[in-house]
Design goal:
Catalytic activity: adenylyl-molybdopterin + molybdate = Mo-molybdopterin + AMP + H(+)
InterPro entries: MoaB/Mog-like_dom_sf, MoaB/Mog_dom, MoeA-like, MoeA_C_domain_IV, MoeA_C_domain_IV_sf, MoeA_linker/N, MoeA_linker/N_sf
Largest sheet: 6 strands, mixed
Organism: Thauera mechernichensis
EC number: 2.10.1.1
Cofactor: Mg(2+)
Helix content: 10-25%
Bound molecules: adenosine monophosphate, magnesium ion
Number of helices: 7
Radius of gyration: 30 Å
């Protein structure tokens, strides 16, 4: 990848992606409200308090394999040892006796280790003849045991406050016998589209109109995040309509997300309205697509004024808004930015001074991975967004990309 030195760069007055991200995240703290919910209802929610293990998991030493519980000291180091099989231990139905010298107990995965035994020999390696089992040499004392507390120790923090619950967390909570957990209340997000040319689906388009797609991409992304949504529709570029929309949104929601109207355009009253109703900064970001963006507060609600172009909405949402919402939802620490180095399978020339997010498709070349462009890269082209499975992130100082250059990608898995 060809790079420039960034010193004499006229685009320096633009805010870098990292600076804007940091400014947003630093200004936010988690919501206060919380509730107690049943385990299943905690899916996608964020723990407000630590989950403490009330006892050891597993609660008793048990077998990791189907096989025989034996005493390692009984085994001959050089040859097979014959042991007498004196019983069977099932998961949930332990062997009640004691394993004495020269004895073995047939044992199933998950069964408690019988008293006297200290080692499990897997069934695949032994030879069984009536009530005798022949154990080959070379077994290690203590092998194939799961120790009490090896997963979670009694009294320890099983899950820390700030963790968002996924399938593994639900299972972990249930494995402790815990039926309810404290989670932050859902984040309430109001969103609307702006623009006189924007039409809602359900009626034919008039000349010059375009259907509203931003409310649908935002609906999808915000639903996945588990927010409570207030869809306020399309608001025309009229001061009274915008003022009413911002007033209603700020009364009902923790966060307001708008699209359109933040660039310097004649018919865009939205900047003026945002500035009058709250404390809002209008940023020129060193990013493509998605240059203009507004961030601030209207009354108690946090405001994200995203650009209007459909792909710019998705890029700015994923680079700036999503982590901010997670922070408000109580997630700590925030998940690290996922970026992977792969080989480029395309040629591109690029202006310096801005970070570019291209729509890419990962492809496998033998053991290696490369990335191709997913189609036309215009900021209004949603079809290539749908074809793509990652963003290719080209840093500010990159000037061009040649096939074989190393580039960084952010896979959509987990993002979109
Ligand atoms: P704006 O930032 O308002 O100047 O809009 C930039 C471009 O994005 C214009 O071509 C708009 O028509 C288009 N646009 C704005 N909002 C939407 C929307 N909700 N759905 C689809 N296109 C939009
Ligand atoms: Mg507009």
């Amino acid at each position: 990848m060809n790079s420039s030195s960034s010193s004499a760069d006229p685009a320096r007055s633009f805010l870098s992606v990292d600076t804007a991200r940091a400014a947003i995240l630093d200004s936010l703290s988690p919501l206060c409200g919380w509730e107690k919910v049943a385990v299943r209802a905690a899916l996608g929610r964020v723990l407000r308090t630590d989950v403490i293990a009330p006892y050891n998991v597993p609660s008793h030493d048990n077998s990791a394999m189907d096989g025989y519980a034996i005493r390692a000291a009984d085994l001959d180091a050089g040859t097979d040892t014959a042991l007498a099989v004196v019983g069977t231990a099932y998961a949930g139905r332990p062997f009640s006796g004691i394993v004495g010298a020269g004895q073995a107990v047939r044992i199933m995965t998950g069964a408690s280790i019988p008293q006297g035994a200290d080692t499990i020999v897997v069934q695949e390696v032994v030879r069984r003849s009536d009530d005798r089992v022949f154990v080959p040499a070379g077994q290690k004392k203590g092998q194939n045991l799961r120790r009490a507390g090896e997963d979670l120790a009694e009294g320890g923090v099983a899950l820390a406050a700030g963790r968002r619950c996924g399938p593994a967390e639900l299972g972990l909570i249930a494995s402790l016998g815990i039926a309810e957990v404290d989670v932050y209340r859902p984040l309430r997000v109001a969103f609307f589209s702006t623009g006189d040319e924007i039409a809602s689906i359900g009626r034919p388009l008039c000349p010059g109109e375009v259907y509203d797609s931003n409310r649908y991409t935002l609906f999808g992304a915000l639903s996945r995040l588990g927010c409570d949504l207030i869809d306020m529709g399309v608001i025309p570029d009229r001061p009274d309509a915008l003022e009413a929309a911002f007033r209603d949104a700020s009364e009902a929601a923790d966060v307001i997300i708008t699209s359109g109207g933040v660039s310097v355009g004649e018919a865009d009253f939205i900047r003026e309205m945002m500035a009058r109703m709250g404390e809002v900064a209008f940023w020129k970001l060193a990013i493509k697509p998605g240059r203009p963006m507004a961030f601030g507060r209207i009354r108690n609600a946090v405001l994200f004024g995203l650009p209007g172009n459909p792909v710019a909405v998705m890029v700015t949402y994923f680079q700036f808004v999503q982590d901010a919402l997670l922070k408000l939802m109580g997630v700590t620490p925030l998940p690290p930015a996922q970026r992977f180095a792969v080989q480029a399978a395309f040629t591109l020339r690029k202006q310096p001074g801005r970070t570019e997010y291209l729509r890419g498709r990962l492809q496998r070349d033998g053991a290696a991975c490369s990335v191709a462009l997913a189609g036309a890269q215009g900021s209004g082209v949603l079809s290539s967004m749908s074809e793509a499975d990652c963003f290719v992130v080209l840093p500010e100082d990159c000037l061009s990309v040649q096939p074989g250059d190393t580039v960084y990608v952010q896979p959509f898995h987990g993002l979109l």
